[in-house]
Design brief:
Blueprint: H1 13-19, H2 42-105, H3 108-121, H4 127-131, E1 135-136, E2 139-140, H5 142-148, H6 163-176, H7 184-203, H8 206-218, H9 231-258, H10 260-265, H11 272-300
Antiparallel strand pairs: 1-2
């Protein structure tokens, strides 16, 4: 996938730094008896390095997970739009073959199989299937809006965003990531901005990403309040938060990988777009085989 979003990918500097952030025991160990922070020392400097490493590793991991999520969503849409008619044709042929066999044999078991095959052709979708992929946090997706307005639905042109789009996205994430916020107000601003960045990335829209990069460069600089805790305490708290965030990303990556589409994508990590072509070729061969079988039954009858 370009970057491995699997849980194993998280067991790097971020995990190591969070698991063993610094020697010396509990947070605040650098203070003297008066409670004042004696200033940066070897332990604090090591903590600061660990935080920087952990932040970099976490952001890289989050980029990998988001890229994989985009690939899964695009593959799912392309799979449905390009291959859905072939699956429907296969179901119809299977039903016709089962019905022809039942008509010839009169066997109750063959009739039961024919009824089951026919029921598969026009299933009643559940609510989740009806709305999956068509509604997001901003309402109807562009595909759903196009359908409602009787316009042609434009599928994503490819599964994986191209190199220019990925490069623009990576640079934006490293500059505007919410994990780099100094306070809650700045975090909310970054989170809202990253929603727009992620939407443009999902569309593969490099031009919009460039515009967002310019917007971020001229935007307000982050200014946070001075922390009341010692520097060591702040750094320990930061490492704890980074470790918790890493676990959330591990869970998200695992859920993506264990989905049906995620499992299919892992079969072709270097070229997911080619996988669609291979599946299409296999389905065409299956359709031809079913049509030949149906023709044989019709001739024999």
């Amino acid at each position: 996938m370009g970057a491995d979003p699997s849980p194993d990918a998280a067991s790097g500097p971020a995990a190591d730094a969070a698991a063993d952030p610094a020697p010396g025991g509990a947070a605040g160990a650098g203070r003297d008896g008066s409670g004042a922070d004696p200033g940066p020392g070897p332990g604090t400097e090591r903590l600061e390095r660990a935080v920087r490493v952990a932040e970099d590793a976490l952001i890289e991991f989050e980029i990998a997970v988001e890229t994989f999520r985009v690939e899964v969503e695009n593959f799912s849409r392309l799979h449905h739009q390009r291959l859905g008619p072939m699956y429907a044709r296969l179901d119809e042929l299977d039903a016709q073959i089962a019905e022809a066999v039942a008509a010839r044999s009169g066997d109750p078991e063959d009739r039961r199989r024919a009824e089951e095959a026919r029921a598969i052709v026009m299933p009643m979708p559940g609510v989740e299937e009806l709305f999956h992929g068509w509604i997001d946090s901003d309402g109807f997706s562009p595909e759903a809006a196009a359908m409602l307005n009787e316009q042609q639905v434009q599928p994503p042109s490819r599964v994986r965003p191209d190199e220019e789009t990925r490069r623009a996205y990576r640079e934006l994430v490293r500059e505007a990531h919410p994990d780099l916020a100094a306070d809650d107000v700045e975090r909310r601003r970054r989170e809202e901005f990253m929603v727009r960045v992620n939407q443009a990335y999902a569309r593969g829209d490099a031009q919009t990403l460039r515009g967002l990069a310019e917007e971020w460069r001229i935007g307000p600089a982050a200014r946070g309040p001075e922390p009341e805790l010692s520097r060591s305490e702040v750094l320990y708290a930061r490492l704890e938060w980074l470790a918790a965030r890493k676990e959330q990303l591990v869970a998200a990556a695992r859920e993506l990988e264990e989905s049906a589409i995620g499992a299919m994508l892992r079969m072709a990590p270097d070229d997911p777009d080619r996988l669609l072509e291979e599946i299409a070729e296999k389905l065409l061969a299956d359709v031809a085989e079913r049509e030949s079988r149906l023709a044989e039954l019709a001739t024999a009858g």
